[in-house]
Design brief:
By secondary structure, the chain is of the alpha+beta class. It is built from 9 helices and 9 strands. It has a 5-stranded mixed beta sheet, sandwiched between helices. It has a 4-stranded antiparallel beta sheet with strand order 7-8-6-9. α5 runs parallel beside α6. It is globular and about 50 Å long.
């Protein structure tokens, strides 16, 4: 089984990608990385530069080699069985919007679908890749670049005692459809929804969250408020 482990860095509220990185990873009798790419993507402004440190001028120097890198990425994607991102909900939207038809296989979320055995102090899920890596005894030197996050997730797989079962269990979990729920909270209780990692949708004026249907019942039991399915 081959996984395309992928990460993106984005530059604005439209989630315009300024960097993409991926590693083709084999799961099986001999597990490990097969091939990798990482490239900046040309942009003119980067409103997230304070976070990812990517200068728009630096991205311009990726002309024209970023096209070759993307072509290689398409070759890796073509032979992958699944695409994996730590936060697949985010990265899949970026890829589907800006690189349509690049990923034609199902996505797995390494944060929500993989049962690493790591228990976040946040009972409502959601944690950082760096938290997981440190828990697994993996040193961290840099963050907020796509290639760094891909390498970190690859090393988490390398350290896991049974990556085959880890991925097979994630595939089984991913068969459960995603459902969108909204928090039934008033203005004075909005902090409860925020703390439970619900997101505010200003257009619909609701606190909402997506979750696997099979996990919904147990998740609701951890909440201090009611929810409804949208």
């Amino acid at each position: 089984m081959k996984l395309l482990i992928l990460d993106t860095e984005t530059a604005d509220d439209e989630n315009t990608p300024c960097e993409i990185a991926a590693t083709l990873y084999e799961i099986g009798e001999y597990s490990g990385a097969i091939a990798s790419i990482s490239t900046l993507l040309p942009i003119t402004t980067n409103h997230a530069q304070a976070i990812n440190g990517i200068s728009p001028k630096l991205t311009q120097t990726s002309h024209p080699i970023h096209k070759t890198a993307l072509a290689f990425l398409r070759e890796m994607a073509a032979i992958a069985d699944y695409a994996v991102a730590f936060n697949a909900e985010f990265d899949s939207e970026v890829v589907n919007k800006f690189f349509p038809d690049l990923i034609t296989v199902p996505w797995l979320c390494a944060m929500r679908d993989f049962n690493w055995g790591y228990h976040s102090i946040n009972a409502h899920g959601g944690y950082k890749l760096t938290d997981l890596a440190l828990w697994m005894g993996i040193g961290i030197s840099t963050v907020h670049r796509a290639a760094d996050d891909v390498r970190l997730l690859v090393e988490c797989l390398n350290r896991h005692k049974n990556p085959t079962k880890l991925v097979e269990d994630a595939i089984a979990l991913a068969q459960s459809p995603m459902v969108e729920i909204k928090a039934l909270v008033g203005y004075e209780d909005r902090h409860l929804a925020s703390r439970a990692k619900f997101a505010w949708d200003g257009d619909r004026r609701i606190w909402h969250k997506s979750i696997r249907q099979c996990l919904l019942e147990d998740f609701v039991k951890t909440l201090d408020f009611d929810v409804s399915i949208i």
